Amino acid sequence: NCTLLALLLLVVMMACSTLPDVPHAQVTQETRKSQYQAGDMIHFDCESGYTSALTIKYVCTTEAWQPLQKGSCYREFKSFLFFSHSHVNDYSSIISSSRCDPPPTVQGLTVKGLPENCLPIRPNHILTFSCDGPGKYLNGVSVLICGQDGQWNNPFPTCIDRSCKVGVMHPHLYVAGLPPSNEIMATGHKLRFLCSNTHELIGSTEIECLENGQWNSSFPTCSVERSCGRPPPVSDGDTKTSTKQQYQHNERVEYICQKCHIMVTGPFKTCVDGEWIGEIRCLLLIGCSIWSD
Predict the structure, then answer these.
(1) Which of 108, 133, 161 is the endpoint of a domain?
(2) C-alpha distance from residue 276 to each of 80, 102, 196, 271 (Å)
(3) Any idea where the Sushi domain is (predicted)?
(4) What is the pLDDT of residues 271-283, one digit of tens each?
(5) Which end of the chain has a smaller Cβ tally under 10 Å, C or N?
(6) Range of the domain at 10
């Protein structure tokens, strides 16, 4: 559809109409255009008197400019010849402080981009982080940049177990396997379920936390059974005990037959999802008088 293609092209051009703001830097002549499309890349050159440890690169996407290699331009010092002794000391102090601390050694955390031979980490230096082994994921930012002030632009990330969360459950659902005071389950953890006596389990009786942080099956629920009112009357019969106004699912009531009658079916009626289930029949005994003592 040509109209859709033209609209998409217009959206991309508008998204990249404003160039990224890089202080003390300009887009190189080789990558400068009047209009940019998705996939176009631009490079930045630092102004005179400024430098960058990396080539600053951005790429145009359908949403906006995205950094491929983010950096900044900082003032360069070329000579000590015109510095007084005190200024040289000040400059040496600046140089010595313009380094970032190396990341701590953490088991399972892989760091790429560290300088060789334990050289200091200078401004604009980039480190990338990832986690080893299954069941682990990075908690934090994966790419860090050393700033001009000797501080990293984000805290160092850590590796933590990929985990599953336990959300809101049916009020009549009982769970076995929940650790005390913890709503997060590690990979491989299993939960087992059952419902109260008045409810039926709908779904899996057991679920397991997978490496992707998801459960292998959705949480089960419990059916909603209706209660019953007073038990119904039975011809030539009565309930054995006094009755209640309301009975829960699976509760039952026992019946007895009246004088001179014998029970051929029964003696119980059971409340099942709001209905009384069970046949009660009382037959009159031949030759027996209900009026006799």
Answers:
(1) 161
(2) 100, 75, 20, 5
(3) 14-75, 98-161, 174-224, 226-284
(4) 987 889 999 999 9
(5) C
(6) 2-75
